[in-house]
Amino acid sequence: MDIAKEIKWNKEGLVPVVVQCHESGKVLMLAWMNREALANTLKTGKPIYWSRSRKSLWRKGETSGQTQTLKELLLDCDGDTLLAKVVQKGVACHTGRSTCFFKKLGRKTIRITEKPTVDPAALYGKPKKKKRPS
Amino acid sequence: MDIAKEIKWNKEGLVPVVVQCHESGKVLMLAWMNREALANTLKTGKPIYWSRSRKSLWRKGETSGQTQTLKELLLDCDGDTLLAKVVQKGVACHTGRSTCFFKKLGRKTIRITEKPTVDPAALYGKPKKKKRPS
Q: For A84-95, how does the pLDDT look when each residue is reduced to its tens digit (9 = 90+)?
């Protein structure tokens, strides 16, 4: 069975992927996959997504070290959305928070529900200078 | 604060909404909202979505009776995805399953992980004939 044919790809050839912590059930992020990302993710067990802003594939954690390991990948009833249950190393959000969903909406207000636990500069900062030889 | 301005709507004026059971953490479905759906949902606490296929608003459960009550609505770091934590009455999926995500993907296989607990015909079937007066 060709799994890619079971999926309703959108006009851009993408499908949204809800990413959830396998253990806690926390929803971590929403990402997108194209056919190559899906095939590679199923093959390697290491989620790779399509960046719509950079128009390129990105392996989650390749820069930050905050990698994911796939535990389960589920397709929905309509065949147009995926749910990836993962083990998340460190934090999922580039802001240093465990999840990307931390802005609670009121009718006219937004309240931040979580503080960063990691300094984003530590995740994406410039490489540290080599230590002087002692 | 105009909440709608805090959201990055896509070209169609929509934003994806991950819908999660507030209590169990189970991811139930992915839906979409336009500005009107968002404002109405925040006002009423009863999620209403935009159907991309029917091109109209639909109050979750209006036909099936499987309604949702909003507990929390969260926006993600990029401002382009919502997470709705809800109390789901009955089943979320039109197939009669608790969740829309029940097709587990292997590299070349799909396995159904959950059987329907409700007959879809009971949710969407024709109105029952009136009982004869006794």
A: 999 999 999 999
Of B121, B99, B123, give the one whose Cα is nearest residue B112. Answer: B99
Closest Cα in chain B, distance from residue A131 (Å): 35
Q: Give yes or no for B3 touching A (CB within 8 A).
A: yes
What CA–CA distance (Å, rounded) separates A15 from B77? 20
Verify whether the Cβ–Cβ distance A18 to B6 is below 8 Å: no
Per-domain boundaries in chain A:
3-93
Taking the C-alpha atoms of residue B128 and residue B107, their distance in angstroms, rounded to an integer, is 44
Of B88, B101, B93, B99, the closest CA to residue B120 belongs to B93
Yes or no: say if B1 and B66 are a contact pair by the CB < 8 Å rule.
no
Conformational region of residue B74, where left means phi above 0, alpha means psi within -120 to 50, and beta covers everything else: beta
Taking chain B (134 residues) in consecutive chunks of 10 residues, what is each chunk's mean pLDDT? 96 98 98 98 97 95 94 98 97 96 97 96 70 51
- pTM > 0.90: yes or no: yes
Answer for the pair B22, B71: CB distance below 8 angstroms, yes or no. Answer: yes
Write out the CATH class of domain B3-124: alpha beta
- CATH number listed for the domain at residues A3-93: 3.10.20.810
